[in-house]
């Protein structure tokens, strides 16, 4: 908050306010995203509110939720190691809730024993992740010269299907423009087509509503993503470089240093005027505020939760990585698809798995009454793009 009093010097009070974009000064927080440091630290006990949120949104019992959180944390920490062990045979990986284990796709069984020795399971696949990423990049190239029609909602690498999955509106496959795009995509590599009844994806910014986290140029509301040294990150479609930002109380926070949309959907906002940062994601009373301890990427199949200024706290699962989403404003690349709902005003908000930052809300379809899906821009890409350091506990 811009003005600090004695109560706000107490850490619990600061943590309760942190998603509004202020709290401890940057010098008080030391980043810790190194795998060795994260692996050495014992996992904190699961927050009762988070367990309850997973019970509500994923239909788990409390014991199942706690077990799953532990299993997912193990899987995320194994991911870099098994990728190295698999080498050129690596065909992607995903978390299997039924087995509670990371599953690693391999094109060569000679690597299976070493991978299984880590505790991960293996599955034979025909194509490497590198080949699938190359095919997906080729489809992206097709889309730049031949923009996808609106009935093509997106495309992604799916490690479980070992293919590039293109999603299209139900009943649209025979449409001439859709068919032409699918033919061009199929020529680029291994493609599977998935018909879906989902609505067209949209971004999730909103007009001014009092009492919400931050406003851009006085007339658009978005949600803070994660605190970084010097400011915070959010969605790119929320504002442009130089756009001024004010907080929930109407006081000046700072301005957008840079943003990218479409193509990407990320931004960096530098703060000042007495606003501080803390390593916390607001739980909105549904869960205790979440301390951010790093940014390990959660594999497909993991649970993930989102915090936003409109619909507050909701959970779901990671459905896909490296997806191109065909918004009306243009395609956005390398997003992560989730089953979490969202609504206008949630744009830019935080996605977390356990205590690990995942990304900032980009867009979606549906709502939190009837259901829907959302995509997020991975936070590690944003940090790398701007040379930022995540504020962590």
From TrEMBL:
<dbReference type="Pfam" id="PF02983">
    <property type="entry name" value="Pro_Al_protease"/>
</dbReference>
<dbReference type="InterPro" id="IPR035070">
    <property type="entry name" value="Streptogrisin_prodomain"/>
</dbReference>
<feature type="signal peptide">
    <location>
        <begin position="1"/>
        <end position="29"/>
    </location>
</feature>
<keyword id="KW-0378">Hydrolase</keyword>
<keyword id="KW-0645">Protease</keyword>
<comment type="similarity">
    <text>Belongs to the peptidase S1 family.</text>
</comment>
<dbReference type="InterPro" id="IPR001316">
    <property type="entry name" value="Pept_S1A_streptogrisin"/>
</dbReference>
<dbReference type="InterPro" id="IPR043504">
    <property type="entry name" value="Peptidase_S1_PA_chymotrypsin"/>
</dbReference>
<protein>
    <submittedName>
        <fullName>S1 family peptidase</fullName>
    </submittedName>
</protein>
<dbReference type="InterPro" id="IPR004236">
    <property type="entry name" value="Pept_S1_alpha_lytic"/>
</dbReference>
<feature type="domain" description="Peptidase S1A alpha-lytic prodomain">
    <location>
        <begin position="127"/>
        <end position="188"/>
    </location>
</feature>
<keyword id="KW-0865">Zymogen</keyword>
<dbReference type="InterPro" id="IPR009003">
    <property type="entry name" value="Peptidase_S1_PA"/>
</dbReference>
<keyword id="KW-0732">Signal</keyword>
<keyword id="KW-0720">Serine protease</keyword>
<keyword id="KW-1015">Disulfide bond</keyword>
